Amino acid sequence: MIVKVLELESNKARLLVQGEGHTFMNALTDEILRDPSVDVAKYLIEFQFSEPELLITTKGKKDPLVVIKDACKRLSKNCDKLVKGLGK
């Protein structure tokens, strides 16, 4: 997955996430919104085959890139739990 930073401020990030679609982006934004320091988390896929653009803003001074990384780690742990559950 290739991620391009389009805009980065202390409480705002706009990223282009290449090679992903609605499935991953829905899961990611849902997980990001679980963080109480997040004000806005949404994505836009402008055209059918365009790359999704992720926008996140945080309340206060929490780094939005840290929020995204933490959300990805939680998603990965949930997937690991699912895979282990299927192996039984």
Describe what you observe in this structure:
The chain has 88 residues and is an alpha+beta fold. The protein has one domain: Gyrase A, domain 2 (2-Layer Sandwich), CATH 3.30.1360. The protein is built from two helices and four strands; from the N terminus they run E-E-H-E-E-H. A hairpin with an 8-residue loop joins strand 3 and strand 4. The longest helix has 23 residues. It starts with a strand and ends with a helix. The relative contact order is 0.20. The mean pLDDT is 93.
Q: What structural keywords apply?
A:
alpha+beta, Gyrase A, domain 2, 4-stranded antiparallel beta sheet
CATH class: Alpha Beta
Rg is 14 Å
Largest sheet: 4 strands, antiparallel
| Structural domain count | 1
Specify the overall morphology.
globular
The strands making up the biggest β-sheet line up spatially as 1-2-4-3
Number of helices: 2
Helicity range of the residues?
Answer: 25-40%
CATH fold call:
Gyrase A, domain 2
How much β-strand is present in the residues? 25-35%
Low-confidence parts, pLDDT < 50 over ≥5 residues?
none
Q: What is the element string, with H for helices and E for strands?
A: EEHEEH
Which CATH-level-2 architecture? 2-Layer Sandwich
Distance between the termini: 30 Å
Summed over residues and divided by their number, the pLDDT gives a mean of: 93
SS content category = alpha+beta
Number of strands: 4
The CATH homologous superfamily corresponds to: RNA polymerase, RBP11-like subunit
